[in-house]
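Summary for the lay section of the report: proteins are chains of building blocks that fold into shapes. Here we show the chain for Myo-inositol transporter and then a coded description of the shape we predicted for it.
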Amino acid sequence: MSVNEKTEKSKSEELDPHKEVFDPHEEHLDNSEKETKATFFVYMLVVCVCVGGFLFGYDTGVISGALVFIKDEFDLSNTQRELVVGATTFGAIFGGFFAGLTDLAEGFILVIISSLVFIAGALIMALSRSFAALLIGRIVVGLGVGIASMIVPVYVSELSPKSIRGRLNTLNTLVVTFGQVFAYVMNIAFSRVPEGWRYMFGIAGIPALFQFLIMPFLPESPRRSVAIGKLDDARKAIRKIYGDSVTDVFIEQEIRMINDDVHACRSGTFKDFMHKDNFMPLIIACILQAAQQLCGFNAA
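The coded shape description reads as follows.
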């Protein structure tokens, strides 16, 4: 066969749409497509963890209806009413410090702690017989709100597949709002019940108890396991997240990427905030957070 004939044959093969051409990346792409699909376990895990977000919304919203009754129950002055409402936010300031413990303690342990705090706060408020006890209960609940608002989004993002991580994190924001709406419904439901305000506060302990009982059976995030050198635990967690269809090669790739990200984060400094690629997004985020509070939505 002449050189020209070989050239013509190769061109015809390239242009033939029905000819199967081997692509060394095709298998990897198909496999990756399967591996980015989360398992049912992931969705159930996220729902359980997001109970913290639900309680965040519930405990910040329930006071608007309960205050109508407790102001007469304890003969509260305007200042005392302001303290009862603002106590949760005050407690949340200190609860937010738990965010710094994510590098020292396992994420699900911190979620369990927030569950216990929510349960304790709900019981204190529901059983309170004085303004002081009610105020303490609101501060305790605020601690839970602060912990949940810092820990839950991080835990969810670390346990979510990359392809749906944004959607699952949005779920946490959604349940916060749902918690506020549910609180308003409970305000209406117990408004005509004798000492109904106690039920309004106490009912928050039920989802917190559910979360407390379920969380010990959930895995630590792969990122946390890699950070402390428990690679076998990280592999097991990734296997649960993506299912049995994933390959060992994919799992090892995930481990390497997580490890690289952990080292990159540890090498970061506060000077990175001043970098032009980070500074403006930081300012925009702070403005949006401030505007959200200044609009008075949480004062409803």
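Put simply, here is one thing we learned. The chain is about 75% helix and 0% strand.
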